[in-house]
């Protein structure tokens, strides 16, 4: 009954939002907040990162990242090609991110696994792919629906069994939603960003095989990981197999881009 109520509550909130189609043809629920608000939140978050985290003073690193981002941005759909702001943070963890509103952040640790421009493009195109596929919008919409659903369930349980039971229900329900509702969608988004990102990098003149070697480097650098069903990312070996298969299919796109003069030389 609790699961049924949760499903109905979440469905009622999400149904009030818009249905759209992702770049890979997947149906999405979006629109809990406006794109303008998402862009503003992205700008605020990026400003906070820059204010609180040390940034690289290596001008060549900053220029390198900007070069790759700009090459990818030129291949984005209309409406997404604004001037993307970049920052390089001094942090040993190999990570990068992109935010709505055209912001890209890179940790210096990424250069230990992204060892050439094609591998770096594999990271950055993937992160930018999250933005253009409206994954932030989708996650906000889903999370707002889940939170609304838990509030309704807590009220129903509390009216019958008391406030203590209501609090416990919300705590347990939050864990259930995280593992059974939100995390699987995150893995779907990660796989979709791989698809979108690899297409973008090939169109920009970066070798799509770079995404394959990037993840091989990631595995070599990484340690133990959680089981796939509890992870927000696909299993690395499965991911590499899919990236390799797509890279073969994108070779003509890459070759056409190079023939057309899209030959990035980022260093």
From TrEMBL:
Cellular component terms per the entry's GO annotation: membrane
Co-factor(s): Zn(2+)
UniProt-listed Pfam families: Peptidase_M48
Keywords assigned: Hydrolase, Metal-binding, Metalloprotease, Protease, Signal, Zinc
Signal peptide positions on this chain: 1-18
Domain Peptidase M48 stretches: 61-246
Membership in a protein family: Belongs to the peptidase M48 family.
Protein name: Peptidase family M48
Species annotation: Lysobacter spongiicola DSM 21749
